[in-house]
Amino acid sequence: MLRVETPFALTAPAAAVRARPILPLEARGLVLETAGRRLVDGLDLELQPGALTVILGPNGAGKSLALRLLHGLLRPTAGAITWAGRAADADVRRRQAMVFQKPVLLRRSTAANLDYVLKRQSLSRSRRRARLQELLTLGNLLHLARVPARLLSGGEQQRLAVVRALACEPEVLFLDEPTASLDPAATLAIEALIERAHGAGTAILLVTHDLGQARRLAREVVFLHQGRAVEKAEAAAFFAGPRSAIARAYLAGDLAL
Fold first, then answer.
1. pTM for the whole thing?
2. Which domain covers residue 110, as residue numbers?
3. CA 241 to CA 235: how far, in whole Å?
4. Residues 227, 82: Cα–Cα separation, whole Å
5. 115 in a domain, yes or no?
6. Are 155 and 189 in contact (CB under 8 A)?
7. Helix or strand run (H / E) with residue 47
8. Per residue in 199-244, pLDDT tens?
């Protein structure tokens, strides 16, 4: 299996050594309604420290909406989201990050996209320069440091988006189909970054339609259907034999309605 190897080793997230934890993340009875339609319907979900959880489900199951609710981009119509028993606050928001299917990048160079995040941290100038080099190396982007982000390939842009998210050393990383439309080499490069982040202690919640990717990465699977969590199981158990008919149909490649 192809893996991106660099001399840079991620360290444990800074949040992991802080006195006040933010995990577990718990969602209870989440509802999201718009224009009279219930898109998320009583969703229960939790993320424990050190998790690498993959959310699966057919189109329209509410996967991306669930991620946006948990990240705080959307406000639920009903239900509650707690981080280690408390509502999200500025501290919680600083200690999580999200990467989208389509990279959201600044109209600046590759290096400037990373430096934008680093400038918001309490780093000395020398440490910031060193950290920038580390991140560029981690993403295999050092040779592209001065290239405008908009001129990068799709895979290069997504690597930049992931390492920029990792620049703030998040304790929780949300990933919404980060390898959709990427070729196999670019996909495996992103997966290598995800594995490195998880190995350093970052909890991962990943939405994907790629069953191969889910099998490669997931330690735990949550299966959504019609806005509800139908199943939650260890990855090996889920792929060996889902309990629900809808999940079995999904794995078999049947249309899941």
1. 0.91
2. 104-169
3. 10
4. 19
5. yes
6. yes
7. strand 37-47
8. 999 999 999 999 999 999 999 999 999 999 999 999 999 999 999 9
